Amino acid sequence: MTQHVFYIEGGDNVGKSTTISKLKETGFIDLLAYNKIGFNKYPTSNLTDKINQIVTATNELDKAHSIDKTINYRQAKNQLIDETIGFMISDMNDSFSPHHTIPIFTKEDTCYICDRGPLSTYLYQYRGKDGLDTLDTIPLMNEKHLLEQFIKSYVPNTPNDLNIVILNNNKSIDDIHIDTTETIAYKKAFDNDIKLQTRINNSLNNIVTMIKTDQLPKTHIRFYCIDIFDAMGRRKSPDDVCKELIQIINSTGGN
Fold it and tell me: Which of 9-23, 27-41, 182-196 is predicted least confidently?
């Protein structure tokens, strides 16, 4: 029995949660080639308080450094980033474990679909280590090296089949409707951090380019992408995006 894990990733407001909700509908979930299917959203609510505390500590560090330049800012910032990455990866343990919490009484493969995953940890945390948060964009080959380093250093080499599916905004960020209803403190802070969001979108563009040109690093994770705008520049419907996701999931196996 193999557990096939699909992390649905992408920038803010590209439709990750909407696509997963659509997939849960009877008319779509019945199209999946798997009989055993589970869902999760990362980070889980278990981490909310902890991440809020780390974001507060990071803001306090920034303020302290603006006053006292003798503070070893980079070392302290890296420690906070490493702490966050550790919490994030541990929080995803269900998707790395070969024995998922869904009761399994047969030898059928399982499908586990997650709203966000390791790529978000790379984009939000790892990509900002060692002063790289000062760079809005980096060359594609540098991105490739960083991504490979992150996956090999932090993502467990599990027996599970790990897949990342990026919902790609293949137009301008201005073409995306922005959701302003977020209530969780750290998520609101991330959403409102323009420099962070710029860095994330530029890194996503690099990674999508690597997917489309077969330049991805060789790791134990497979990458896919789905453009959310069609060739005519029209936003695809949730149904259409969901159908493309089902094709990707079914291409990996089933029962």
Answer: 182-196
**Strand arrangement, sheet containing 3-10:** 36-41, 110-115, 3-10, 161-168, 221-227
pLDDT tens, position by position, 206-216: 999 999 999 99
Cα 94 to chain center, whole Å?
Answer: 16
DSSP secondary structure letters along 142-198: HHHHHHHHHHHHHS---SSEEEEEEEE--S-GGGSPPP----SHHHHHHHH-HHHHH
More confident residue, 172 or 73: 73
Domains in the chain: ranges and CATH = 3-250 (3.40.50.300)
Q: In this predicted model, what pLDDT tens digit does every residue of 158-181 receive, in sequence order?
A: 999 999 999 999 987 555 555 566
In 3D space, the residue among 160, 151, 161, 157 whose CA is nearest the CA of residue 121 turns out to be 151
The length of the chain in residues reads: 255
Q: What is the mean pLDDT of the chain?
A: 90
Q: How far apart are CA 208 and CA 229, in angstroms?
A: 14
Closest to 162 (Cα-Cα) out of 151, 153, 147? 151
